[in-house]
Every structure is written in C-alpha cells, then in structure tokens.
Amino acid sequence: MPSSAQRRRDQQILRISEDPARFSESILGQDIWSKQVEILHSVARHSRTAVKACHASGKTYIAAAAALWWITSQLEAIAVTTAPTWTQVERVLWGEIHRACAGARIRYPTPTATSLQLGPGRYLMGLSTNEGVRFQGFHGNVLVVLDEAPGVLTEIWEAIEGIRAGGQVRVLALGNPTISSGPFYEAFGSQRESWNPITISAFDTPNLEGVSLEELQRMPESELDQNPRPYLTTRRWVKEKSLEWGLGHPLWESRVEGKFPTQSADALVSLSWLEAAKASDRPGNGDWNAGVDVAGPGEDETVLVIRDGPRIVQMLAWPQPDPRGEIVRALTPYKGQLKTVQVDTAGIGHYLAKHLEDHKFPVRYVNVGEHAQASDKYVNRKAELYWGLRMRFESGDVSGLRDEKSIAQLCGIRYHHNARGQVVIESKEEARKRGVKSPDRAEAIMLAFAVPRGEPRIRFLGESNSLWREVGAYPLDYNRR
C-alpha cells in the first residue's frame, strides 16, 4: 500500500498533468515553444492531430512528451508509437523518450529499448510493422503516435482506424511533408475536417520568428548564429538552403516552409520517389556497376557512384581538378566485381576514362551529347539515360539514396518535349539561369544506372499490374578505343 504522502504526491502529479504543456515543463523539465504547446493541447482536445513540419522543428521531441503525458496523466492508459522502420522507432522517437525519462522530475521505471511499463494497463511501447493485424488488441484510453507519418503504410493507418472504433483514442501523426499523396497528405486535404492540422514553418520557430527571408539574406554573419534555441532550425541553415535550393524548389517547400511540395509538372523525378529510394532497404543483386561524372572548368565536383543492382553502395565527390588517384583508390576494392565503370567522356572526361582503362577497369565511354538510340523519343543520349533513371525511381528500382545533395539535384532537374515530341532535359546553362548549380551527383547516378549495349532489358511492373515497363532499355553505343 502506498503511503499517504505518496498518494498526495500522485494526486499532485495528476493535477499538474491535466495540462500537457504544464506537464512537459513542470514534470519533464522541458523548454517548449508555442507550436509545441499547440501540439500538446491538440492531443488533449482533438481525436486526431496531424503535424507537418520543417526540418529540425522539435516535432519528435514533443511527440515523446505527448506519449509520456498520456500514460502519466491517467491511471489506465496505453500509448503506442510507430514509424516506417524499426531504426526510426528505436533510435529516433524512443531515443527522445529515454532522454525525457532520464531528465524527468519524477522517477520513471527504467524503460527497455522500446517499452515503458507503469502498471497493469498503463504502458508505452514502440512498434514497427507492415502487418496491420499487430495493431489489433489495443482498447480503452489509447494514444497512437505515428512518427515520419508520410512513410507509414496505408494498411497501418487502416488498422489504427479500427482501434478508434471504441474507447478514448487519440492519434498524433507527425512528419516532414515530402509526399503529396496518401493518408498523411489527406489529413491536410480531403480529410481535413476530421483532423486538427498543424503546420510548422522554419519561420515559425524561435530562431526565425519575426524574421523575413529578405532580412535573413541581408543578415550579417555575426547575427546568423544568434539562435535562442540552437537545437532547432537555425538562421544560417535556412539562409544556406535559400541559396542552394531557391524558392519554389520542392525541398525548400517541404523542409523549410513545412508545405507539401507543389512540384513543377516538368520535374523529371518526383520528390516522393526520391524519398522512397532514401527509405528503401532493397538489397543488391550482384550486378555491380559504377558511374563517373567529371567536373569541367568552373564546375563543382567530380563524382563517383557505385551500385550493386538497385542499391547505391557508395558515392564520393572531389572538388579538386584532378582526382584520378582518388578515383582509382576508391574503385580498387570493387575491381573484381565491377561489370562496368561508365564515364561521361564529353570534354575532359575522355582522359579520365583512358586513365581508368590503363588501370584495367572495365570502362565504358559514354558521350551524353550524342544521338539517342531511340532518336524518335529522345533528343540525345542524356535525355534517354535520364528518362531511364526516372522510370527506375518511379517503380522503386533504386535504394540506398542517402545523400541529401543528390536528392536536391535530382528533384531540381526539369524536362520538356520539343516540337518533334522528343524528351529534352534542361541544359546546365538554362538551369544556372534559375540559380541551379551543376547536377554533378545526379549525373553520376544516371551513369551508374545506364544499361550497356547487349545487356538484357530490365523489366518490372509499373504503376499498374497490367503495365510492364522497360527501364534503360535503349543500349549505349560506346566509342571504345
């Protein structure tokens, strides 16, 4: 039996916990800001809360507070957290839960990796699954937290709706708005009336509140690092991205403004496809190839990409004008496995290709300015190869894309059809007029995924099960020496 002092303390905690924001500050000792307070109050008052947020807004931090508040403020309560992958569940959200418990002003039982038990029918657990059936069996006072919600499978969303059929159930879905489709997107669109939607822009955060983009761009260096909460989106980062991405870029919209990208109709690769390639754990298949894009005068980087089937296993970039030794060193561990090393030989790339050939690498010479194999469809080889890469991304045939700069370059590439109906990729000169730098990393990826002459055509299902598509189907006409 608890002592009378313990009972009084428990009652005091429950009174404080009537307001989740007060709980966060008084019990967990957290320093929260206005949008985080809004999220906590929304969980208390609304059955479903959806939060689309910019990069580094503190959304996962406050999701951990909401889950702890839920099981602390009620004598019988269950909180379940989920995310697209186990790593995101265990390391990201549950990392915040562990830190919150450790810093709390009350003593919580020591949590396991992804569970915290306060008593019978009063617990918090993490769950990652692609089986909706695993969400069955939760009843009563239940809070479900979906972190990185755009990537959570539709089946899981449907299973959560089954939980909501009875009891007092709350749903908190949070994520960076990178995918303009699916249940999370619909929470801000067609299903908006049944959700309480919250948007967090970088300019809402304490570090940028009251600062316009124009003021930020004129801000002296001494003020860029004056961030009241340096763990949130910083002034310097936003300024850098305004110069790197520019207004209207899909990554600016989603990761700075907290908006779903209104990606241009002429974008070659959808940001949602790129995010899927980033999240994908699809393994390699032993089909090893590499691509090298060589920096010309005034360009940024020479880039090497190595892939094992659909999986990008390594990407290296060099700013120096002559990285031949570094490229040889990077390729050597894969020498016995590589089927091709495909080099853009337009311009100075020819000399690098010859150097690699002298070192007995299986070099393929690719001139992206030459005529396409399917010249009725593509204006040149570059358009042909990029279109093949686009189709790979569309059908989920790329994984391991972790490099943010590559993602930014790929979703910034535009195309159009000329008067003959051929696909034309925007030139580097045209892109520079829009403030877009040379897409060296994107081009190295394109070369790595090009299909050589004589290779079997790669086929897989497209958007419809009745529609088969061929990717990279037009072979390269290499000018070997």
Output the radius of gyration. Answer: 26 Å
- Order of strands across the biggest sheet? 3-4-2-5-6-1-7
Runs in which pLDDT lies below 50 for 5 or more consecutive residues are: 453-481
Number of strands: 16
Overall domain count:
3
Which whole number gives the mean pLDDT?
A: 88
CATH architecture of the largest domain: 2-Layer Sandwich
Query: Strand content of the residues, in percent?
Result: 15-25%
Number of helices: 18
CATH class category of the largest domain: Alpha Beta
| Overall helicity | 25-40%
How would you characterize the largest beta sheet?
7 strands, mixed
> Could you tell me how far the N terminus lies from the C terminus, measured between alpha carbons in angstroms?
88 Å
Structural class: alpha/beta
CATH names the topology of the largest domain as: Nucleotidyltransferase, domain 5
